[in-house]
Amino acid sequence: MGSILKPKAPTLPPPPAPVEPPEPELSPEEQAMIDKEQAAIERRRRGRKSTILTGPLGIQEDKEQKLKTLLGD
Q1: How far apart are the C-alpha atoms of 34 and 25, rounded to whole Å?
Q2: CB-hemisphere CA count at 13 Å for 30?
Q3: Which residues are CB-contacts of 54 (< 8 A; sequence separation ≥ 6)?
Q4: pLDDT tens digits, one per residue of 8-59
């Protein structure tokens, strides 16, 4: 019964669309420097990944690749 006596709230106008700032202009020298840094980061990341020999299921090597060790394995 309380809803009969309460006035309805007016609808709000939609919020304004967000304004995207323009992207800054980069000179070719700055763009080349950024590309060079990104390539170096990718190179280092790739180098570290190649040293990891295990996966989510443990060691990922075939029986053919497994070599005997001096401990008799």
Answers
A1: 13
A2: 4
A3: 60
A4: 888 999 989 988 888 778 888 999 999 999 999 888 877 666 666 666 666 6
The tokens of 6 are what? 């309460």
pLDDT of residue 43: 82
DSSP, res 6: S
Q: Which residues contact 26 (CB under 8 A, 6 or more apart)?
A: 34
6-18 burial code (b ≥16 CB/10 A, e <16): eeeeeeeeeeeee
Tokens of 53: 């020999």
Residue 30 tokens, joined: 């700055």
Residues 53/59, Cβ–Cβ less than 8 Å: yes
